[in-house]
TrEMBL record:
CDD domains: USP-like. Pfam families: Usp. Residues 1-147 form the UspA domain. It comes from Uliginosibacterium flavum. Belongs to the universal stress protein A family. This is Universal stress protein. SUPFAM superfamilies: Adenine nucleotide alpha hydrolases-like.
Length: 147
């Protein structure tokens, strides 16, 4: 059925549960896994009254997010390898996570995206949408949403 799963993760509790479930699913299929972490871009400081300036430099921010990505991806990879699965990891810096997820799935030859739903509710959901919803809307690769 599916031979190569893309599993985006952000290290949150729901995302970690999705990773665990995806590993079991991949094991049942004998599929390989690519884990993806999308690092945020450096926030631009906003000038003006009441504006919050970035508390760290661009380099410190990049180092911090890179270390976070490495830690989260390593934890997922160790668990998948312990389950006997072929595993790879990748990370990219972008403020458009859904596009990175779609591009990674296509470029890596994944035949299923297995991701957690972080759906926002109420006004936040209406205004911001959800990365999961955007992936579902735009991705040509099948998407399995873990809730």
């Amino acid at each position: 059925m599916y031979k190569h799963l893309l599993i985006p993760t952000d290290g949150s509790e729901l995302s970690n549960r999705a990773v665990a479930s995806a590993i079991e699913f991949a094991r049942s299929l004998k599929a390989k896994i690519t884990f993806l972490y999308v690092q945020p871009e450096f926030p631009l400081p906003i000038a003006g009254e009441g504006a919050m300036l970035a508390p760290e430099s661009r380099d410190e921010f990049a180092q911090s997010t890179r270390e976070q990505a490495e830690r989260i991806l390593a934890e997922a990879a160790v668990t998948a390898k312990a389950a006997g699965l072929e595993t790879s990891t990748t990370t990219e810096v972008s403020d458009i996570p859904y596009q990175v997820i779609i591009n990674t799935a296509q470029n890596r030859g994944c035949d299923l995206v297995f991701m957690a739903s972080h759906g926002r509710k109420g006004l936040a959901g209406l205004l911001l949408g959800s990365e999961t919803h955007k992936v579902l809307t735009h991705c040509k690769v099948p998407v399995l949403v873990y809730r």
